[in-house]
Amino acid sequence: MVVQPHVARPIAAQGERSEKFSGETDTQKRVAMDAWGHEDLLCRNYILNGLSDMLYNMYSSTNTASAFWESLEKKYKTEDVGLKKFIVGKFLEFKMVDFKTVMDQVQKFQTIMHDLHAERMKLSESFQVAAMIEKLPPLWKDFKNSLKHKQKQMELEDLIVRLRIEEDNRLSEMNSKKLQIEAKKI
């Protein structure tokens, strides 16, 4: 965890009186600046101490904790944008397949939706429902079309329950067909 350093206000130009130091002597100003310099050094070195050797070599040339903080913030804010694009890409590319159970794939899709939410990218529930219906596997084409033509607005939980029921029905239907085929062989 990176701690934001305490950044002191800039010193007034020579001859000007800073509001903070008004009425103070030069000695008091010097003591305050020395204290700030010491705190800045401690903060900078504390952060550098937690870095890997490669990162240490990269950031050890920064002069102040605030410059160090700004460079880290710039780098990692850029990476956050990259992470958002990666998660959106996963969402857009996700497609359910016939050879895996639908409920396992629904769970994976929900994980992607959770990742989007964690990145503060909100999607309405009706959009999530429509997206999940659209991503159903090809063998579920008829069921997908029947869901699309429903007039009533469906919540995500209702859709998941319907998918679970449909998958259970399909599995039991396949098992009964297997039993009939085996019975005919005997």
TrEMBL record:
Q: Where is this region: Disordered?
A: 1-26
- Which residue windows does the record flag with biased composition (Basic and acidic residues)? 16-26
What is the protein's name according to its record? Zinc finger, CCHC-type
Q: Which organism is it from?
A: Sesamum angolense
